[in-house]
Amino acid sequence: MVFWEIHWHTQRGQISGAGKKWGKIMLKGGVIGVTDEIREYEAVVLLHPEMSEEERGKIRERIESSIRGKGGEITRVEVWGRKALAYEINHLREAFYLLYLFTLPAKHLRELQEAFSLAEEIKRFKIFRRASKG
Q1: Which of 16, 23, 26, 96 is most buried, judged by most C-beta within 10 A?
Q2: What is the C-alpha to C-alpha distance for residues 10 and 2, in angstroms, rounded to an integer?
Q3: Residue 134 maps to a domain
Q4: What angle do CA 88, 91, 97 make, to 5 degrees?
Q5: Over 70: is that where the pLDDT of 20 sits?
Q6: Is the pTM of this model over 0.85?
Q7: What is the pLDDT of residue 14?
Q8: Same structural domain for residues 7 and 21?
Q9: Domain containing 24: what range?
C-alpha cells in the first residue's frame, strides 16, 4: 500500500503558503502503486524468548508457508537467537530474533503484513524493502 502526504493551507484550501497553518491528508493508494513487480524484502521477526524449539519450528513453518503462499520465494533465513530488547515490549526484556530475506510480488506485501499481525506468537515484526542493485 502506498501513502502520499499532501499539505494544504486550511484557510484557503491551497497547496502553498509556507509558514501558515497546515493540515494533512493521507490518501490511500488503493490500486495506484500496486504492481505485479517482484521485489526483494527483509523481515525481522521477534518471538517470545521462552518458546520451545518445537514451537519456534512450527511458527517458522507458518511464516515460510505464508511467504510462499503469496507467491514469494525465501532466499535466506538467519536465526539470530535470543537477544536483549532496546526497550520492554509486553513486559519482555528479551526476544528470539529471526531474519528472513525473500522476494514477493509487491501487490501481496499488505496481505503478508496482515498475516504477521494476526499471528499471536509473533510479538513484533518489521518488513523492509531491500535497496535495488544498480
Answers
A1: 96
A2: 24
A3: no
A4: 60
A5: no
A6: no
A7: 44
A8: yes
A9: 1-34
Binned at pLDDT 50, 70 and 90, residue 134 comes out as low
pLDDT digits (tens, 9 = 90+) for 32-85: 446 778 999 999 999 999 999 999 999 999 999 999 999 999 999 999 999 999
Beta strands in 10-91 (DSSP E): 22-28, 38-47, 73-89
39 within 8 A of 104, measured Cβ to Cβ: yes
Residues in a beta bridge with 83: 95
Nearest-angstrom CA–CA distance, 1 and 8:
23
The single-letter DSSP state of residue 15 is S
Residues 62 and 27 occupy one common structural domain = no
Find where cell 508457508 sits: 65
Measured CA to CA, the distance from residue 124 to residue 88 in angstroms comes to 12
Alpha-carbon distance of 85 to 74, in angstroms, equals: 26
